[in-house]
User: Fold this.
Amino acid sequence: MPPVAPVLTAALTALVLMAGGAGAEGPGPRFPTTVFETGAKGAAVTVGDVTASISMVLRPRIDADFEVPVLTVSVGERRVLEAVGVASGFDFPATEASIADMDPNNTRPEVYFTSFSGGMHCCTEVMVATQVGDKWAAVPAGAFDGDGDFLQDLDGDGHAEIVTVDNRFLYEFDCYACSAAPLQILTVRRGKLVDASGEIQFLPAHRAWLAQMEGAIGPAQRWTSRGFLAGWVAAKARLGEGADALSQLAANWDLAADAGEEVCLTGQPIEECPRRKKVTLKFPDHLKLFLEQHGYAVT
Assistant:
């Protein structure tokens, strides 16, 4: 295993601890969450007049071999939404639903629904059920690495966010275990998924995350690990320090030993890239292009 392998492991461990999630010692989830009794095929949780129920059922059109989790949201006695998760292939439910206030525009809380698809590093499918006017909508949040316990009130304002890392960094420049990634903070507002990562109230969280990343890398690998440096520059960009971070990278990177890598200027996979859009870039320029393509300010 490469010497920088602890970088991502430490970062994700820190994220779980910060969230008070399943991997942390101490009390359980901060938000009311379904609990499946041993052998049970269903579980429910209620806050006020909102109930989130999960049932494990066979749906051959979705998965011919395994049960899938089905979320039902009710307000009082009225069913307002049903959503289907993904099958994990396990013989126990790999799914949860939590009730938490996320959207300050709503009078009722949201339902945060996760289901795990199985696999070494992927994926937990996340969906948020939210009231929009007099109806309810299922808002897909994405598929993320980890156990799905990403829900927390990061800025202490009484409204929860989905706090994870930007999964696009985990394989882009190095192996999974050799990679670091910046925080990604998502929420739901007026029935739409919103990336709130750049909002000012989350600057302290980004700064704390950057400190965790910097503490997890050894001095000998500080300027040689592509996986770490990509996540580090992106985390600095979250703080408005992206240009400075790129300058430091350019000053310390061994350009002579870098043969460069063929990349696509459009952001497409290299096998789908038009020939005229293919270029060979050394790591600092490749990283700059990648960050710009994904909305990270580095100039």
In short: The helical segments are 6-19, 203-215, 226-238, 242-252, 283-293. Residues 221-293 form one domain. The longest helix spans residues 6-19.
